[in-house]
């Protein structure tokens, strides 16, 4: 815009000099047209404001360290020619990641802006100071709107050392398997109305002269607890989150629902999140990633918990070698 103003000012000075030293109608006409051009440009540009809709989208889930971007597009539905659109894009998170970019948009043409995915976190992407230039590029006409979206920078699942030991994971009780089906563990009982014929134990039924049902059972295991510390160091916390993602997925593969627990950095109270599906893992990181650590946050490692427990730690050797 500054370049356009300088060029227009130089042209206007030339027109004035031409008008002063040249006696003729053409000099006057050129000067009047030059003075009127900015007003004409504004008259055509201002009505375009109400036909512009800014849309911004971010990836629902990006992986740390991999290329990703947000997309911003100015949708224009007017009939007159739409001028250029400008916006300032701010991206930031509670973990210190931040960037600012100035974007020049053209109607209905999307623009991709690269994201910094150095650390795990939830980036808040905001488009503000949005407006349009007039057709000459001399004035900015603000659009009183601000839009925002979020992008989740997820960890890279990495196996911890040592691996969680689930060999001694015991069953506290058993319960009927929903929907029936095969199971190595089952309970024999009398037939009830509504039982499936495929669950009838025919040999025992013939011997006892009564219909016997082989009811499949599944174990109710003891509570599994996975603990993690909210760390101040970005690299160390990323490493711990990588191992937490792998551990939760590993436990679910072995049909072990579990609770993930940590200490709140402000109140030092124990926080808990139940994980029983892979959708819960994604929801878990949406809870963990915005948490901002403090320097005096204690470790949850030494706190006692009943049942099976595994504490996730970062790879100290790898982080220490950096």
Give your account of this protein's structure:
The chain is of the alpha+beta class. It has three domains: 1-154, Immunoglobulin-like (Sandwich), CATH 2.60.40; 171-221, no CATH class; 224-320, no CATH class. It has six helices and 16 strands. Helix 1 packs antiparallel against helix 2 (25-45).
Please supply descriptive tags for the structure shown above.
3 domains, alpha+beta, Immunoglobulin-like, 322 residues
Structural class: alpha+beta
Number of helix segments?
6
* Series of H and E elements: HHEEEEEEEEEEEHEEHEEHEH
What share of the residues lie within helices? 25-40%
Summarize the structure.
With 322 residues, the chain is α+β, with helices and mostly antiparallel strands. The chain has 6 helices and 16 strands.
Layout of strands and helices, then pairs:
Layout: H1 2-21, H2 25-45, E1 52-57, E2 62-63, E3 69-76, E4 85-92, E5 98-105, E6 111-114, E7 121-133, E8 140-142, E9 147-154, E10 171-176, E11 186-190, H3 202-208, E12 212-221, E13 224-227, H4 234-253, E14 258-263, E15 270-275, H5 278-288, E16 308-311, H6 316-320
Parallel strand pairs: 2-9, 13-14, 13-16
Antiparallel strand pairs: 1-3, 3-6, 4-5, 4-7, 7-8, 7-9, 10-12, 11-12, 14-15
Helix pairs in contact: 1-2
């Amino acid at each position: 815009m500054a370049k356009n103003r300088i060029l227009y000012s130089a042209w206007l000075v030339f027109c004035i000099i031409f008008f002063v030293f040249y006696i003729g109608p053409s000099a006057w006409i050129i000067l009047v047209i030059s003075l009127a051009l900015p007003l004409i440009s504004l008259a055509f540009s201002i009505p375009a404001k109400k036909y512009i809709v800014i849309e911004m989208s971010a990836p629902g889930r990006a992986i740390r360290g991999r290329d990703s971007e947000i997309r911003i597009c100015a949708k224009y539905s007017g009939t007159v020619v739409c001028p250029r659109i400008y916006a300032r894009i701010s991206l930031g998170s509670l973990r210190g990641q931040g960037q600012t970019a100035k974007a020049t948009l053209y109607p209905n043409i999307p623009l991709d802006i690269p994201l910094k995915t150095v650390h795990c976190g939830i980036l808040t992407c905001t488009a503000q100071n949005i407006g349009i230039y007039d057709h000459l590029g001399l004035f900015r006409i603000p659009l009183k709107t601000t839009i925002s979206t979020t992008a989740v920078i997820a960890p890279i699942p990495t196996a911890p050392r040592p691996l969680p030991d689930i060999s001694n994971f015991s069953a506290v009780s058993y319960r009927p398997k929903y929907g029936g089906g095969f199971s190595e563990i089952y309970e024999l009982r009398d037939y009830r109305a509504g039982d499936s014929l495929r669950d009838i134990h025919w040999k025992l039924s013939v011997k006892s002269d009564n219909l016997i049902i082989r009811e499949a059972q599944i174990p109710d295991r003891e509570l599994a607890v996975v603990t993690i510390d909210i760390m101040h160091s970005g690299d160390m916390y990323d490493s711990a989150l990588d191992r937490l993602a792998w551990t939760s997925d590993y436990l679910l593969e072995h049909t072990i629902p579990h609770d993930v627990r940590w200490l709140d950095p402000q109140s030092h109270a124990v926080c808990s999140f139940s994980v029983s599906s892979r959708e819960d893992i994604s929801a878990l990181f949406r809870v963990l990633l915005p948490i901002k650590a403090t320097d005096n946050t204690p470790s949850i490692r030494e706190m006692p918990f009943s049942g099976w427990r595994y504490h996730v730690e970062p790879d100290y050797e790898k982080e220490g070698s950096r």
